Amino acid sequence: MISTKVNIAGVELKNPVMTASGTFGSGREYSEFIDINRLGAVVVKGVADKPWNGNISPRIAEVYGGMLNSVGLQNPGVEYFIKEDIPFLRQFDTKVIVNVCGHTIEEYINVVKALNGQDVDLLELNISCPNVAEGGMAFGTEPSMVEKVVSEVKKYADKPLIVKLSPNVTDIVLIAKAAENGGADALSLINTLTGMKIDIYRRKTVLANKIGGMSGPAVKPVAVRMVYQVSKAVKLPIIGMGGISNGEDAVEFIMAGATGISVGTANFANPFATMEVIDGIENYMKKYDVSDISDIRGIIE
Questions:
Q1: Is 129 marked active-site?
Q2: Pairing with 95, which of 22, 36, 87, 288 sits 20 to 30 Å away (CA)?
């Protein structure tokens, strides 16, 4: 008998497999393909305090080893999420994690306040959002700003707070420690790397926004390295993501120090990806006599 149970900030998940925010919506479309009950958690698309239109099209581009997106966190807002999405998700035996986005600290706090008392399990703070008050620089790229936004939001949260880290920084460990100092209960990483694609025949960028976030298999080695470094530097549970498409990928992140893992871009190419990752982890554990998933967590010194 094997155990795939994991604990993220006091919340027990039946297995470490989650969806990455922005790649699964609220699960409605995927519920036609997979058994959502089997997931450790569903991490929903970013939720803001009011509806966001997102960026203009084209805002998705395929690239070698993955994709670029500049969707811009389009979402219908927290009131819609509470009314429509929470009841839908609560039909399933899985944990619900809400990705919280905002342009200012006040906007983050508005979302968190609205979610207080609601039937969700954890919050994930998206600090890769552009900080409008500071001229558009992402909240998550400067350690003092990271600590400030996390500590301010934490004051109002009645659920454990996961902080999602941007890889577009000089030193991911400094950012992780700043989030920990600010009161984060867990960390998730990595968010997308910034990238660009040019159509040489039209002599224009493929994305209307010029620059987008790159995700998919090509970013995995960067993500594994960052998870490994952060796991050695902080005492918080880590949710690893970036290019995971099968069980072997997931095990790699767990050995690097991740407690949980999220499947993102793979969902677009293969709607069954999360189920295959769950099966793959279990098959690996059985084949190599791993009775508890914690036995392989962080084993790379």
A1: yes
A2: 288
